Every structure is written in C-alpha cells, then in structure tokens.
C-alpha cells in the first residue's frame, strides 16, 4: 500500500498545478514535496507529472490514477472520522455553511436549541453564497450546508439533498412609510421606491421587475442596496424609505417590534432551500442531529409557530 502522505502530495500538485503552492498547502518545503513525489514515482515505476509544463500537468499515467487516489484519501478521512466518533461522544467539531438570508431567518433558533443539547460540541458557522458553500462541502472544509434551490439544480450527483419547506418572501418597509397609506397596494405601487436585498439571481430580478412594472433593460439597478448583511439592510429600511425584499423570518423581531411592516403585495419571491451533505462521507454523530434541528425549525417557521426573540422584540425602539 502506498504512503497516504505521498498520495496526498500527489493530489495537491495535481489540484494546484504547482509544486510551490502544493508545498504551501502541505506545510512542507518545496524540496521535501518534490522528494515525496519522486519517491512515489519510483515506487510506482511511473512518471506522474510533466514538470516542464506551466502549470505542471499530469501525465496520462497520472490522470489514470488520480480518481482512485482521491477515493483512497476520501475513505482514509472517513476512517479517521469514524475513529474520532468512537472516542468523541458529545465532544468534537461541526462546520456548517448557510446563505445569508437563511442564516438570518432561522440560524439563531436552530443553533440555540441544538447547542442546548450538545454544549460540548464546537460549531463553526460560515455564511456565503451557495456555490461557495458547495465547494466547501466537496473539499471537506464544511460538514453540512443549507443551499438555495436555484443553485442546486445541476451538478449535485455527489450530494444528498433534503428539501426544506418554502419560506415566505415579501416586501417590508418602515412604520409610517407612505406606501402604507394605500389601502390595497399593487406591486406596481412599489416601483417609485428603491429596493434593498441580498444578491438575487438574475432570473429573480427579472421577475421582480416585471411584477413592479420596471424595465429590466434600464441602467438603473432593480436592487439599489445589495448586501449579504441582512442586519444592515434591515436597519437601513427602518431609517429610510427603502423597501426591503427578504423573508419574513429575516425580519421577525423587527416586525414584532413594529418598526417594520409587511407590504401586502405578492412578488413571488418565496425562498426554497435544501440541506446538502457529501454523499458517502462519514459524519460526526452531532451532524445528523443538526440536520434534524434544521428540518424541525424550518417546519415550525412554515407553520407560523416560530416566535420572535422576545428579549429583543420587547425592547423599546428608538430612532436617533
């Protein structure tokens, strides 16, 4: 059996196309990594890389064994995780990825209830776009992610997906906003105001433009204030005439306080998310329980049974 360290060095060079970058990732010197690759080639009786090419390229022999090497390393990490799990019990480390809107809507109650049951398990929460989170799942820097359904429609054969109940999206404005004076507002009534939101896909932007009667070809962007930071967008909407496009859950506490109001129009921007796991990967015992908690909280939100965070919502709002 070949040395797993050498196989990992081979994978890193193949991945990076550079001995220097691979050495940095392996945390060893470049000469040491070169010696490791040469030793592997000697043991196999094969030349694995075309070293004169820039970037460094795999030979036909290298390409032939790459997939098998990746599978061996994957199973090796699975074995290590199984051994850790046997010893870990309630301890350990779980790494989770979520998109901005989902994390703002539901991560708080999910983490609070899960942590109460697993107080000794360390949790890292990464917020990012679904495409970046999927990459983290594949390179095993993340254990479980929640992703936007629109970004999980293709190229996910290596993932196990669980669809969550849809979360109601809508338009929200400050208390006292002029649009609230309209008895039965229509989507087109929103067109005179600026929108704030979180990196909507182009197809969603076109749908919003059609709903509110804006020309998608106009140089003026549909979303005037675009940010991953929902708290910033929420506060900006509270202090201005911006209209915030997001889910009800993302502004649950502000609605309970009365500082934001839902505008009764249907823009068709409900959110659909999926839980994603790397297929075949051995997980820390706390991961399935975290997945179960995501499903439970999502269902409670869908059924309108998720209460505001009252210690926050009971605070007296101020504008100043």
What's a quick, concise take on this entry?
With 320 residues, the chain is an alpha/beta fold. It has helices spanning 4-16, 19-26, 30-44, 60-88, 100-117, 130-138, 202-212, 230-238, 252-257, 286-302, 310-313; strands at residues 49-50, 57-58, 92-98, 121-127, 144-148, 159-163, 169-174, 195-197, 223-226, 243-247, 260-263, 273-278. Helix 1 crosses helix 2 (19-26), helix 2 (19-26) packs across helix 3 and helix 5 packs across helix 10.
Strand order of the largest sheet: 4-3-5-12-6
Distance between the termini: 69 Å
Overall SS class: alpha/beta
CATH superfamily of the largest domain: Periplasmic binding protein-like II
How large is the share of residues in beta strands?
15-25%
Silhouette: elongated
Your description of this structure?
Residues 1-59 form the HTH lysR-type domain. Keywords: DNA-binding, Transcription, Transcription regulation. With 320 residues, this protein is an alpha/beta fold. The chain has three domains: 4-85, Winged helix-like DNA-binding domain superfamily/Winged helix DNA-binding domain (Arc Repressor Mutant, subunit A), CATH 1.10.10.10; 91-166 and 272-308, 3-Layer(aba) Sandwich (D-Maltodextrin-Binding Protein, domain 2); 169-263, D-Maltodextrin-Binding Protein, domain 2 (3-Layer(aba) Sandwich), CATH 3.40.190. The chain has helices spanning 4-16, 19-26, 30-44, 60-88, 100-117, 130-138, 202-212, 230-238, 252-257, 286-302, 310-313; strands at 49-50, 57-58, 92-98, 121-127, 144-148, 159-163, 169-174, 195-197, 223-226, 243-247, 260-263, 273-278. Strands 4-3-5-12-6 form a five-stranded mixed sheet, with helices on both faces. Strands 9-8-10-7-11 form a five-stranded mixed sheet. Strands 1-2 form a two-stranded antiparallel sheet. Helix 1 (4-16) crosses helix 3 (30-44). The radius of gyration is 25 Å and the shape is elongated. The model is unreliable at 312-320 (pLDDT under 50).
């Amino acid at each position: 059996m070949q040395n797993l360290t050498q196989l990992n060095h081979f994978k890193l060079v193949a991945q990076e196309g550079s001995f220097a970058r691979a050495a940095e990732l392996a945390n060893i010197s470049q000469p040491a990594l070169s010696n490791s690759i040469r030793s592997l080639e000697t043991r196999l009786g094969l030349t694995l890389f075309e070293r004169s090419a820039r970037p460094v390229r795999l030979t036909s022999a290298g390409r032939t064994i790459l997939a098998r090497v990746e599978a061996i390393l994957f199973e090796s990490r699975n074995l290590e995780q199984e051994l850790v799990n046997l010893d870990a019990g309630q301890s350990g480390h779980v790494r989770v990825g979520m998109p901005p809107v989902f994390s703002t809507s539901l991560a708080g109650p999910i983490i609070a209830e899960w942590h109460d049951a697993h107080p000794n398990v360390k949790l890292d929460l990464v917020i990012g776009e679904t495409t970046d989170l999927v990459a983290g799942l594949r390179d095993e820097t993340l254990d479980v992610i929640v992703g936007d359904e629109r970004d999980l429609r293709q190229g996910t054969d290596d993932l196990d997906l669980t669809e969550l109940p849809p979360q109601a999206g809508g338009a929200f404005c400050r208390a006292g906003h002029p649009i609230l004076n309209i008895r039965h507002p229509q989507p087109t009534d929103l067109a005179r105001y600026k929108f704030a939101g979180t990196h909507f896909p182009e197809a969603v932007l076109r749908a919003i433009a059609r709903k509110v009667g804006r020309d998608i070809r106009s140089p003026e962007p549909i979303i005037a204030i675009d940010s991953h930071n929902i708290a910033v967008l929420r506060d900006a909407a509270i202090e201005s005439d911006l209209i915030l496009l997001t889910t009800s859950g993302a502004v649950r506490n502000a609605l309970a306080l009365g500082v934001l109001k839902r505008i009764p129009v249907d823009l068709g921007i409900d959110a659909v998310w999926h839980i994603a796991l790397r297929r075949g990967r051995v997980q820390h015992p706390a991961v399935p329980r975290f997945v179960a908690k995501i499903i439970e909280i999502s269902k409670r939100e869908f059924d309108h049974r998720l209460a505001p965070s009252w210690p926050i919502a009971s605070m007296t709002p101020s504008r100043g």
